[in-house]
Specification:
- With 420 residues, the protein is α/β, with parallel strands linked by helices.
- The chain is 34% helix and 22% strand.
- It has helices spanning 19-34, 58-76, 88-92, 146-150, 158-170, 196-204, 224-232, 249-254, 261-274, 293-306, 333-358, 392-396, and strands at 10-15, 38-39, 46-53, 80-87, 105-108, 128-132, 134-135, 154-155, 175-179, 211-214, 239-241, 279-286, 310-315, 362-369, 372-375, 386-388, 402-411, 414-419.
- The protein has a five-stranded parallel sheet, sandwiched between helices.
- The radius of gyration is 22 Å and the shape is globular.
């Protein structure tokens, strides 16, 4: 008599929030796959669904609640067997499970993060990956709830990072995107203390052809050693994401970013002078308490002067438990959102000018999906892509290949390009 084949438990995943959150889910899901679970062929039908959540600001909480509600409804319809909610939302709101009676497991982020596991699963595909080098944050920015969710800053041991990086490069990964709440602080909490450039030079020594991109560099923490790495490393991407949040000194002080006041005003010019060809990105916040019309106008003028290559903006969301939520002098939500639109309109106008100047340039690009590539000036998920015009060369370019592309035209924040 033929043996009865054991039915595998199927798994579906919903990943919300930042790349760091996605890395956490890669670890969780990888562990389950090693235990015998299998990925469901239908994301809306599985024995178990894991909704990994974000709770950074109001819009993230709303998205999390909508996805949890959707998963519970699908469970009620018989599509899911169990619903697991993980990540920042249950960590921040441990009692909120009562709002979702269909949820089976309510699991926040772990309290400790000493020797994290290497992800056994990669959501980003073959070409690139996010390499998480630390957990938590020891800054106390007045608008941010992350320290209360993720805890103090803890560096991941170098040996663990290098082990994962070697495995990624050996698997064909061609871009390592370094992520953490504050990557520039890596190693400073260690005994003996270390420095991110020590880690970056170790990564630079791995064999093969690949990019290393550091995502997020606080303006006051950029060092000469980091600049030297950008200029001389054979794998470094000349791309710096400097989250200014604001440029008006009074607003920065209220944000508890006093150490960034001076550097926020000169960092763009300094980096362009120190790192020829660098691409600069920043993010700013509108509507924080104390942001008057004049202070907003100053930030707008500063951004026009600094001419960041990439710029994002978001309206301030007062978060319970943060210092900012208790401050007076906060502009209305309508005003904050209107100022956000103004900043983004300025960014779009600047991009139109900058992007047209790039048309005709020949750039090295990494193929990240069939017919889609990114240049060194395009970080994943936030900066657009290059759509490869159909040709025998483009069809031959495989995911993970580096190709030379001539930028032919601008399409919003993307380009169309010809493979040479």
């Amino acid at each position: 008599m033929a043996a009865v084949k054991e039915k595998k438990t199927t798994l579906a995943l919903v990943s919300l929030g930042c790349a760091k959150n996605a890395v956490d889910l890669q670890v969780i899901a990888g562990d389950l796959l090693k235990k015998g679970y299998v990925m469901s062929s239908d994301p809306d039908r599985a024995d178990v669904v894991i909704v990994n959540t974000c709770a950074f600001i109001a819009s993230a909480r709303e998205e999390a609640e909508a996805e949890i509600t959707r998963a519970v409804q699908l469970k009620a319809n018989g599509n899911y067997g169990k619903v697991v909610v993980a990540g920042c939302y249950p960590k921040r709101y441990p009692k909120a499970k009562a709002k979702f009676p269909g949820v089976d497991v309510w699991q926040g982020v772990p309290e400790t993060w000493v020797e994290p596991k290497i992800p056994e699963l990669r959501f980003t595909g073959k070409a690139f990956a996010y390499l998480k080098i630390a957990e938590g944050c020891s800054h106390r920015c007045a608008y941010c709830a992350i320290p209360s969710i993720r805890g103090r800053f803890r560096s991941r041991p170098m040996a663990s990072i290098l082990k994962e990086a070697k495995a990624l490069v050996a698997s064909g990964c061609k871009e390592l995107n370094i992520v953490a709440q504050d990557p520039m602080l890596w190693g400073r909490d260690m005994r003996p203390a270390s420095d991110i450039t020590e880690l970056l030079w170790k990564l630079d020594g791995l064999p093969g052809r690949y990019w290393v991109r550091v995502l997020y560099s606080y303006p006051s923490e950029i060092t000469r050693e980091f600049v030297e790495w950008l200029n001389t490393s054979k794998h470094a991407v000349k791309y710096v994401d400097v989250p200014l949040q604001h440029t008006d000194p009074d607003v920065l002080v209220k944000m508890n970013r006093k150490g960034a006041v001076d550097s926020s005003l000169w960092i763009a010019e300094a980096l362009r002078e120190a790192v020829p060809g660098v691409t600069l990105r920043t993010t700013v916040m509108t509507g924080f308490p104390g942001e008057t019309e004049a202070r907003f106008a100053r930030m707008r003028a500063d951004l026009r002067r600094m001419q960041f290559d990439r710029l994002g903006a978001f309206a301030y969301s007062p978060e319970k438990g943060t210092a900012g939520a208790r401050m007076s002098g906060r502009p209305s939500r309508k005003t904050a959102e209107e100022r956000e639109r103004i900043v983004m309109k300025d960014a779009e106008e600047l991009w139109k000018v900058k992007s047209e100047r790039l048309v005709g340039n020949v750039e090295e690009a990494l193929v990240v999906a069939p017919g889609v590539a990114r240049t060194a000036a395009q970080a994943p998920d936030v900066d657009g892509v290059v759509y490869l015009l159909d040709s025998p060369r483009a069809r031959k370019a495989a995911v993970g290949d580096f190709v030379k592309v001539r930028l032919e035209r601008v399409c919003g924040f993307d380009f169309e390009g010809e493979v040479l």
